[in-house]
Design goal:
Blueprint lengths: L1 E6 L4 E8 L3 E9 L1 H5 L6 H23 L8 E7 L3 H18 L3 E5 H7 L16 E6 L4 E8 L2 E7 L5 H11 L6 H9 L23 H12 L6 H27 L3 E5 L6 H14 L2 E3 L11 H12 L23
Parallel strand pairs: 1-4, 4-5, 6-9, 9-10
Antiparallel strand pairs: 1-2, 2-3, 6-7, 7-8
């Protein structure tokens, strides 16, 4: 089954063709990163206008790269929640138009669920395929969520951040260090030559919960950056990165043991961080857990993950009407009590 996926929830205009929820035939992403960098973050109105300008070109490129025509597409999957409303409307409108014109099934996809399904795409032949049940850590600029994934469509939210998301903390602290936007890659690059133990920074562990907090860490980084003498940027970046990664890894591995699963998923833009992957792999190996994370290109927003999610929804008999709405904010799952 060839599923055409469309993603426009924030500042990437993306389209992809995926076969049977696993195999990527094409994955085209038109990024607006450079345009928004001058503002230090995404400007919603600018993002929406660029989606309108890019959507047709990106869709055509995805079909050409996949060597498919619309007559060979079996279903349309599109991110319809959560995200920037103006941005979401562009993708959903395009998906509805194609679904109506070609009489194809239409599947609305939750953006965070799509990040989870990025782990199902093109697995390394030397590793097992991702499957449920599992514990998943979703870390991005807008989310730091810990889920218990019991089966397809059956998820429980164990905990989330009480304030800043991990990716948001990376962006804000990178600005404090003068490293620019986006903060995740900038801090990771600066940290390579730094000492992660050079600056004593707090860990927002929140004992007795599965939740996270990064606001205190952000304040501590600001104070360190303004100190006289201030630590080197490399040392501060490495110390900050280690403080974030340490908490993310500890909570995730403990959550897997608590619910009794032997699989861990990493997902979201921050899942591309090399230090997070290394420390999570080491901790999972020590605990006897199988760790899954997407290729770096599938960690950030893309449409292949949307198409994969749509396929599994369709296999479960779920499809939407052409009255599909866009939703700015919606939780993927209810909070499970500890």
């Amino acid at each position: 089954m060839n599923v055409l996926g469309i993603e426009t929830s924030c500042d990437e205009t993306a389209a992809a063709v995926v076969v049977d929820g696993r195999h990527v035939l094409s994955n085209v992403v038109a990024s607006q990163m450079r345009e928004h960098a001058r503002y230090g973050g995404v400007v919603p109105e600018v993002a929406s206008r660029r989606h309108v300008e890019q959507i047709n070109r990106v869709l055509q490129a995805a079909l050409e790269d996949a060597d498919r025509t619309l007559s060979e597409i079996d279903a349309i999957a599109v991110t319809n929640r959560p995200g920037l409303m103006g941005a979401l409307l562009v993708g959903v409108s395009a998906a509805k138009a194609i679904a109506m014109a070609r009489n194809l099934p239409l599947i609305g996809v939750h953006h965070i669920e799509a990040h989870l399904y990025a782990n199902f795409l093109d697995p390394d032949p030397n590793r097992a395929k991702a499957d449920f049940p599992a514990v998943a850590l979703v870390v991005s600029g807008g989310h730091t969520d810990l889920f218990h994934l019991r089966a397809h469509g059956d998820y429980a939210l164990m905990g989330r951040t009480r304030d800043d998301a991990a990716g948001e903390a990376f962006d804000k602290c990178a600005r404090l260090m003068g490293l620019g936007y986006p903060g995740g890659p900038a801090i990771e690059a600066a940290a390579r030559t730094g000492n992660p133990k050079a600056v004593s920074l707090p860990r927002g562990a929140l004992p007795g919960t599965w939740e996270f907090s990064f606001s205190g860490l952000k304040t501590a980084v600001r104070r360190a950056a303004e100190a006289d003498p201030a630590p080197s940027v490399a040392d501060l970046a490495a110390s900050f990165q280690e403080a974030v990664v340490e908490v993310l890894v500890a909570k995730t591995v403990a959550a897997a043991a608590f619910v009794g699963v032997n699989r861990v998923f990493l997902a979201g833009g921050v899942a591309a961080n090399t230090r997070l992957r290394e420390r999570m792999q080491a901790a999972c190996d020590a605990a006897g857990l199988a760790l899954f994370y997407p290729p770096i290109l599938l960690c950030t927003d893309n449409a292949a993950m949307v198409a994969a999610t749509g396929y599994f929804h369709l296999q479960a008999g779920h499809a939407d009407r052409l009255t599909l709405n866009t939703i700015a904010s919606e939780s993927l799952a209810v909070i499970a009590t500890r």
